[in-house]
Amino acid sequence: MDTRLSPEQDEIRRTLRELLRRRCGPAELRAAVETPAGHDPLLWSALADRLGLPGLALPEAYGGVGCSVTELALACEETGRFLVPSPLLATSVLTAPLILALGTEAQRAGLLPRIAAGALTAALAVAGPALTTALALTGGNDGYSAGGGRAGGVQARRAEGGWRLYGEVEQVLDGHTAGLLLVAAHTGGYARSRTLLFLVPGDTAGAVRTRQTALDATRPQARVQLRDTPAELLGSEETDVRPALAALGDRVAAVLAAEAVGAADRVLERTVEYAGQRMQFGRPIGSFQAVKHRLADVYVGVQAARSAAYYAAWAAGHGQRAGALALAQALEALRRAAAEGVQLHGGIGFTWEHDAHLYFKRAAGDELLFGPVHRLRDRAAETAELFTGAEVAV
């Protein structure tokens, strides 16, 4: 692994940071999350038209840029710095790779160019247990089921002319605005029970989408209710979606880790800057040794998390898995950086109006959605067979 960034990778970071500095400052961010969509459509169009961000990791044959997971992670590190509310995670990180991996050629050709151009946004609606279970982030997904019937979740049944879905999915990222829903549904009855993925256009009759109040307003979530909703099967009935979901999970974890690193780095920068300005006992609080030690510990944690995130992104593109551990380290670094930021900003840091709370909520919200940290680490140890055959002394 070459740890040096290429000129192209540096250019991606620089160009994206400059654009977001102009278009996604604190005022623009707060205004965007208050809109019904939860993000700024004009900023999304700029990210798509100027940088090709939605199709950054999609093949050129489908209108994408043809970059690897590493470039996507570097881009998300910059969006994390500014807590950019956008459909990027739901569309390009969670949904598009599944369409690419499991879809028919007609489905890929019909959907991916529109996603790459930013004209179509998508959301992954995973019913049943938590999203982390389906993505095999906190445990194996061999027994994963999308639920259905009295057990909740979503059930699929054959109907004249195709498939019909009924059920409900909570906490669908950007599900209220997505032009396309990719829904995990249970089918086959008890004897042939299995989970399949189905494509549902967002404006389909019978699909009711309601935005929910979320801890982290920069990650809008929705409840999706399906009432005898027509759907198109993704790929074929013989497809086992669980390996694809597990492979996607490691890729998602690597990108999320980079995003968390960007957020942690930014809140650390702002805290250091404020510590040099806030006066106590006639001198800046940043000159006190105790404050220096606290900020130095945060800095070490952020740099270690960045190294882990970069390695996980590289590994995801080379058939290796390190995403869960990198995500655990990055979420922990972000949580600590955000907590120190709130405390060292003093009284103003504890007000809802201060930006430190946005980063603190991102740390807490991501751990609720994709963690917790101790289970991510446990899964990483299990995958690496770290304790296999080890004798436990009593």
UniProtKB/TrEMBL annotation:
<feature type="domain" description="Acyl-CoA dehydrogenase/oxidase N-terminal">
    <location>
        <begin position="6"/>
        <end position="118"/>
    </location>
</feature>
<dbReference type="Pfam" id="PF00441">
    <property type="entry name" value="Acyl-CoA_dh_1"/>
</dbReference>
<dbReference type="GO" id="GO:0050660">
    <property type="term" value="F:flavin adenine dinucleotide binding"/>
</dbReference>
<dbReference type="InterPro" id="IPR009100">
    <property type="entry name" value="AcylCoA_DH/oxidase_NM_dom_sf"/>
</dbReference>
<comment type="similarity">
    <text>Belongs to the acyl-CoA dehydrogenase family.</text>
</comment>
<dbReference type="Pfam" id="PF02771">
    <property type="entry name" value="Acyl-CoA_dh_N"/>
</dbReference>
<dbReference type="GO" id="GO:0003995">
    <property type="term" value="F:acyl-CoA dehydrogenase activity"/>
</dbReference>
<feature type="domain" description="Acyl-CoA dehydrogenase/oxidase C-terminal">
    <location>
        <begin position="255"/>
        <end position="382"/>
    </location>
</feature>
<keyword id="KW-0274">FAD</keyword>
<keyword id="KW-0285">Flavoprotein</keyword>
<protein>
    <submittedName>
        <fullName>Acyl-CoA dehydrogenase family protein</fullName>
    </submittedName>
</protein>
<dbReference type="InterPro" id="IPR009075">
    <property type="entry name" value="AcylCo_DH/oxidase_C"/>
</dbReference>
<dbReference type="InterPro" id="IPR036250">
    <property type="entry name" value="AcylCo_DH-like_C"/>
</dbReference>
<dbReference type="InterPro" id="IPR046373">
    <property type="entry name" value="Acyl-CoA_Oxase/DH_mid-dom_sf"/>
</dbReference>
<keyword id="KW-0560">Oxidoreductase</keyword>
<dbReference type="InterPro" id="IPR013786">
    <property type="entry name" value="AcylCoA_DH/ox_N"/>
</dbReference>
<dbReference type="InterPro" id="IPR037069">
    <property type="entry name" value="AcylCoA_DH/ox_N_sf"/>
</dbReference>
